[in-house]
Amino acid sequence: MIRYSLVENNLTPDPDDHVAGVQPIGTKTMEQVVDMMISRGSTVTKAEALSVFEELTLAMVQVVRDGYNVVTPLFNASVSIVGVFTNANDVFNPSRHELKVRIKPGLRMKEAVNKMKVEKVATVKPMPVLQSFKDITSATESDVLTPGGVGQIMGTNLKFNSAEATQGVFFTGSNGTTIKAETIVSNMPSEVIFVIPATLTAGTYSISVRSVLKNTKDLREGFLIDDVTVK
């Protein structure tokens, strides 16, 4: 069941516009997914499953690096090139062009999405809502993270107490490691501008804002719906 609530859309001039904010139950790491698999009666041990997944990951990364597309039941991966070529004789230049990995849902994932049920819920419990993320350095939205660059989040209920270690903008890697953005440039209810941690390594991350909202006492966390990637 996918639960969502509607919040005001601050990205358009129409005061009546709203957007859906999916309210996820939480985030699962690969280890937690393997634990779920084992709990269903799989004869494969956790160590074996994680080892196979690591080997599968290495193999898929290698075939993509070799120039192939990857098609799996869960996702399809391909590589594209962005940037302007000045003429037909121009060649790839890392200062003007960039390789991007494109990930799209595979057949099994598409079938699962088509069967998902959705439920609209009242926004009884206010929480940070992240509507968009922009990596200023690469001029991309909800796609790339540039370590040491500047990031911008737009949404609602984003403002937090930057003096509190538990509040702020956080990046959670696929391995469960979480890193906080320490330098905040602008901290407003509808916009947060910050320096992306330079310590982020290559991989996929979820972005979240943690805050104790006005007239509340508990820490609340909102996530960007799209994961972003450090190349």
Automatic annotation (TrEMBL):
Gene3D superfamilies: 2.70.50.70. Residues 132-219 form the DUF4469 domain. Residues 1-120 form the Bvu-2165-like IHF-HU-like DNA-binding domain. It comes from the Bacteria. InterPro entries: Bvu_2165-like_IHF-HU-DNA_bdg (IPR049893), DUF4469 (IPR027824). Signal peptide: none annotated. It holds the Pfam family DUF4469. This is DUF4469 domain-containing protein.
